[in-house]
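User: Please fill in residues for this 265-position structure.
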C-alpha cells in the first residue's frame, strides 16, 4: 500500500502575516515532486509547517498522512509517522559526532522494542545500528571517517547537505521534504548530493524537492513540477515546466497571481 501526503486548503501565517493562502498538494510514495517559486512565495514556510515548527501558525486547512491529520501531532510524532525534512541551513553541533547524532535520531524515530517492564523503548541495538550506518554510508559512497566528525562542525556546504541525506537514509521516511537542498552548493557538490537523493528515492519514498532554481532538477528528475506564487500553487506540469521556468522566469505567474487577486478583492 502506497501512502499519500495530502495537503488541503492550508493557511499559515508568520507574525500575523498570511503566507500560505489555501495551499493544496498530494505527494505519494514513489513520486518525486518539485515545488518551485520566487523568493518569498512561501516554499520554506510550507516545509516548516508540515514538520510542526512553532513559529508557523496554522490558521486553517488539513494535512493527512496515514489516516491522521498531522497538524494535530507534535514534530517528533510526525517524524515517527514517516515524514522527514532536510533543512536549508543545517545546524552545527560541536562535540556531538555524526554517529551519536544519527543513533539518537534513529532511536527517537524508529524506536525499538518496549523494554521488559513495558515502559519506554530499549532503542536500536548498537551492533544493529552500526551495521545499518555502514551499509547506508557505502550506499551513498561516503567515507566512514565522516561518522566520527562533529555534526556539521567545520563542514562545507556540500558536506552539510550530505549529512542530511545520510540522516534521511538512516530514518527511511515514506515522505521526504528537501528544503532548498541545492542552496549554496557548487556544481560538484550539487551532483554528489543529487546522486544521494537518486539512490534513496524509489517506490518506498516520496520526495518533495523545494527549490528556487532548476539546476538540481538536471540531476533529480521530477515526475511533477509545481509553481508556487504568493502562498498557492498556480501551475503544475511535468519536468518540462522546470525548463520553461529556467528560460522564462516567474514573471508571468507572478503577474497572473496579482491580476487574480485584484479580481477577487
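Assistant: Residues filled in for all 265 positions:
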Amino acid at each position: 500500500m502506497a501512502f499519500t501526503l495530502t495537503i488541503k486548503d492550508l493557511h499559515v501565517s508568520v507574525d500575523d502575516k498570511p503566507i500560505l493562502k489555501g495551499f493544496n498538494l498530494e505527494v505519494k510514495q514513489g513520486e518525486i515532486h518539485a515545488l518551485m517559486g520566487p523568493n518569498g512565495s512561501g516554499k520554506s514556510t510550507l516545509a516548516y509547517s508540515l514538520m510542526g515548527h512553532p513559529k508557523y501558525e496554522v490558521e486553517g486547512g488539513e494535512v493527512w498522512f496515514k489516516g491522521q491529520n498531522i497538524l494535530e501531532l507534535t514534530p517528533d510524532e510526525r517524524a515517527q509517522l514517516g515524514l522527514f525534512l532536510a533543512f536549508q541551513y543545517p545546524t552545527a553541533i560541536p562535540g556531538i559526532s555524526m554517529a551519536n547524532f544519527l543513533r539518537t535520531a534513529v532511536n527517537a524515530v524508529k524506536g525499538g522494542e518496549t523494554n521488559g517492564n513495558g515502559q519506554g523503548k530499549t532503542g536500536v541495538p548498537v551492533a544493529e545500528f552500526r551495521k545499518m550506518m555502514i551499509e547506508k554510508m557505502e550506499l551513498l559512497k561516503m567515507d566512514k571517517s565522516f561518522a566520527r566528525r562533529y555534526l556539521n562542525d567545520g563542514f562545507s556546504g556540500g558536506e552539510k547537505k550530505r549529512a542530511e541525506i545520510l540522516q534521511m537514509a538512516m530514518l527511511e521516511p515514506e515522505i521526504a521534504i528537501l528544503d532548498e537542498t541545492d542552496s549554496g552548493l557548487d556544481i560538484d557538490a550539487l551532483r554528489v548530493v543529487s546522486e544521494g537523493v537518486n539512490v534513496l528515492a524509489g517506490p518506498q519514498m516520496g520526495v518533495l524537492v523545494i527549490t528556487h532554481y532548476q539546476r538540481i532538477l538536471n540531476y533529480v528528475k521530477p515526475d511533477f513540477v509545481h509553481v508556487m506564487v504568493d502562498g498557492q500553487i498556480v501551475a503544475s506540469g511535468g519536468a518540462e515546466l522546470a525548463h520553461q521556468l529556467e528560460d522564462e522566469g516567474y514573471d508571468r505567474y507572478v503577474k497572473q497571481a496579482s491580476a487574480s487577486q485584484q479580481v477577487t478583492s
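For context: The longest strand covers residues 17-28.
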